[in-house]
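General statements about sequence and structure are easier to judge against a single worked case. For one protein, we set the task of working out the structure tokens from the amino acid sequence alone. This step matters because it turns folding into a mapping between discrete strings. The amino acid sequence and the backbone structure tokens for this protein are reproduced below.
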Amino acid sequence: MTVGARDLEPARSARELYGTELHRQRQLARMSLDRLSEVVNYSKTHLHGVETAERLPLPPISEKLDVAFGTGELFQGLWGVVKREHTPRRFDHCLELEARAARIQAYGSTLVPGLLQAGGYMRALFRRGNPTASPDEINSLVADRLSRQEVLRGDTPPDYWAILDEAVLRRSVGGPAAMREQLAALLPLVDTPRATIQVIPFEVGEYGGMNGTIILLTLPDNSTTVYQEGGGIGETFDDRETVTRRLRDYDRMKACALSPEESAALIEAAMEKFKPCEPPQT
């Protein structure tokens, strides 16, 4: 059940303090969420999430709220407190949207996006990222990620588009067998009625947005949320400015990328590097 703004406990966390103050200021101003959405140029859904402490009040929303309510630097100061507080659920919101999305567009600069990862590949990543985890814990993480991939195989799968840097194909993750399995798993999804994979080759050189991970999640109501990750830290954004900029970046990446047919050929060529060694002749 979703927590309402009135159910928050300001002393429990900085996020709840922020949400409580947002609700209080909005009531003092006699301003609806619809009206506040128009004033600060953030969606009503996002504002409700901040007010109920379910979403982070990422910049520049605090500055815009201070201007809207004439509160000086109140919300900017509260954001400083929120920022220092541990926020482990940043990716959870992305997962929730992923399950409901009508269109998913992903970009990977160094790793295969989660929805395309094969078992051996993701197992190697989980082992590296969780060196003290038990085999059962790793198995659970793998099972969770594999269950996420069911979204692409359901009765009404989203339109899925992935752009990969060539480095994703060349970097060995989990050893030759795992990489060959992973690259082979990409090929059937390169060009289907509901999925497209393109590769940006090394020869392109630098291009816009080439760092980290980007996922663009568009819901049936045509609203889009951006998930960005770099250095192990991820954030979600749904303000119009950020979404517009990232959609434009993604379109430019498509323009830099090979066609699906050429991308498949490059994936097949990369697989050759990970072929099993021939046993020595006796």
